[in-house]
Structure formats: C-alpha cells, structure tokens
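Late entry, written up from scratch paper. The run itself happened at the end of the previous shift, but nothing got recorded in the book at the time, so transcribing now.
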Amino acid sequence: MTLWKESATSLAAMIRNKEVSSREVVDAHLRRIEAVNPKLNAVTIALEESALAAADRADASAPTGPLHGVPFSIKENIDCVGSPTTSGVTVFAEAMPPIDSPVVTRMKAAGAIPLARTNMPEMGLRITTDNPLRGRTLNPWTQTRTAGGSSGGEGSAIAAGMSPIGLGNDIGGSVRNPAVCCGIASLKPSAGRIPHALSLPPSDNNGLAGQLMAVEGPMARHIADVKLGYEILSGRDPRDPVSVDAPLYAAIPDNRQVALVTDIPGITLPDYIVASVRRAGEALTATGWQTEEVSPPELERVTELWGHVLTDEFAPVIDQFGTFMSAPAVGLLQKLIEMYPPENLPSALLHAERWRLCKAWSEFFAEYPLVVGPTWTDIPFEHDADLAEDGAETTVNRLRFITPANLLSLPSAAVPTGVHDGFPMGVQVLADRWRDDLSLEGAAAIERSLGAITPIDPVF
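Output as recorded:
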C-alpha cells in the first residue's frame, strides 16, 4: 500500500479502523516531501517534528474527529502556530502568529495534523507562484509552465502526493487556478461560508476587495475530500464578522437544468477547452441533469467590475507595495490599475453595478441551478508570462470565467476533466449563493464519470 497516494477520507478510515497508524501516514507523506519537493519547491517548511509528535498522540487516543490522524498542508498566508505567516514576502519571513487561523483551528479539532507550509506569490497577488523569499514552485505536469496561484504550492504539493488535503484562499481564483493547472479539486465557497482571520498586521481583509471577495477554501485530489473540508471548515466565527451559520445542505432542485458555458466574450476558447466543458456536461447528463449551451449574464462586465474592485483598493496604496514587494510584481499591479482605472468607474456606480449583476445571476440560477464552464480559458502559461508587457492581459484573459464567483460571492467547485496533450483540463461548477452543496454535487458527478488524474510523479 502506498499511503501517499490515498485520499484524506481513505486515510482517515484506515487510521480509524487501525489498519495503519497515524505515524505511518504522516511519515509516508514526509518521505514523499523529501523525494519530490526538491524538484517542485511546493512545500516551504515541513513540520516534521511537530507532525510526528501529533501523530503519536493521535495513535494513543480515541478518534477525535473525521480527519483523526490525517496530515494536511497550509498556505503561507494562513496562521498556523509554530511556523511563520510569510505571505510570500521577505519582510514577514519570521512573522510568527500567536494563534491559529479559524480554518487551522477547525482542521485540528477534526483531528487533522499540520504537516507542511506551502508556497505562494508575494501577498497572493499573482496567479502564478514565485517570490524572492521562497523561489518558484513548479507544476508536476511540466517544469516550463505555471502551477497556478496564488495557492500554487498547495496545488503542486497535493497533485504530487506530498499532502492529501490542504488549505488555500481565493480572491481571484487562488484555489481554482492551481486546481486546473495541477489537476486537483477545490472549492471556492460562498463568501461568509468559511471564516477568515489573521492575527498579525496587516491583519484581516480590511479593504473592501478583501471583505467582498476573499475566502478560505479546501483543496484535495478528490471531491469527497473537498466536501469533507467544506463540512469541517464552515460556520460562524466571531473573528470574522461576515461569517455565518448557513445550512450546509438543501434538496437538489426539481429543475435540473445546467448552463454549459462554451463561449466567453473577449476571447476565443480553444477547441480543447470547449471539449472539456462538453465532457463535463455529458457526465452530468448521464446522472439526470439536462444541459444547454448558454452564457450567464454579462460575463465581460463581471470581469470588468472584478478588476475595478481590486484596483479601487490597490491604487491608493501602490507606492506602499513597493516597500516590501519586488518591482516586477508591483509592475503587474500597476498595469492592472491602468487596465481598470478607478476614476473610470466611481465607487458608488461600481457597487450599484455589482448589486445589479448579483440580482441578474440569482435570477439566472433560478432557471439554471448549475453553471459549468472552464476554470482557465487556456492551458497554463509559461513562467513569468504574467510579468511580460502584456502580462496584465494574460492574467485577466485566463480569469474570465474565474471572476464571477469572486465578484458575486458565489460557490464554485473546480474538478478535473482529463488530460490534453500532457496538460490537465478542468471545469468549474457554480451555483447560487449558499448552494455550495449543489456545486459540490455537480463536481462529484463529473468526477465519478471522468475520474481523478492525480497523484502523479513529476514528469521531469
């Protein structure tokens, strides 16, 4: 039995049934990190001593939760006591949090064991993973193309079997971008579903962009593990004033219409991306859903507003970014500000427009309870293509179907659909706000038909 290939839920069952020990599971993943992380640079810190000690405690105790004794990994902008919350920048290299984030607290309460910290871009503000502090994370499918970001360390580590389940966050696809680039699954939950809080300055999502659009989310190789993470992580926490105790599950609607998005304004989708979406549609059709190729409201306007929400926050403080971020990364932000100048869309109009689109999409979901479309609009780009002269356009064009879930506070599950020419393919399954369960149900149906495509050994 190769323990690092197993899912988180399978490992939990084996530990619970005493088929294996937690120490054996943790040690297998630590050895896997030793074997493949030198190629990928996905894990920044392996928490070997504390993880093995926690495994021994788990083996000596009765099960404490659904992930008792199972290791998990944690992105470097999420507080985990005993390791720094670097956010991918040198100035925070020794920033030790006094308390865990709510999501780490909940994973520990479920019996899970912190195994490793994972890499990210500076302040999470690129959709690839590289920074002056930790270096570049490579994609296990190809060393020449991005692993995605900003939770790219998580994506690469999980895909390569270094971790069975992990924690990321998402303001512009940051749990979904690495999912499609690396061939794993993830959930960007409804805003407010899973609490977010930091204990170190600059703490929390004080800006409006973070308050409206940033969420924490689980990442794994299998939708069943993502679903378990959703159950563990969800619910109100007083440290996050917008978090809520919304019901986790509701009935599947009688209306089983699915909108398949095969046309996105502003770009031309390659044939293999369209084929990926249609494969997902066929999988859903086989389980009783009815599909129609139709686009939800005003996709191009949604992306425009998403850009303006970000630049409204970045533009006044862009000079401060230069004091702790590299010049190329700041240059990308400056180009995004040039694409979406705040003065072109005054704040009052911006948020009135956002509300209008929220309503339009809610009405669309009444007709099509599931919306399925590409995660990225093309294969992973070559390293640093986002920093080239047209890098802002490269970034935005990849995200043209990522942005709705963030701008409109919607749940979106990312799931693989196969491999094309050596690159993983994947789709997102969106549902109306608070119907994260429906999003996961659709993704699970796709996975049951098309299968998981990781873990893999690095192909280089």
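The mean pLDDT is 97.
(Scratch paper discarded after transcription.)
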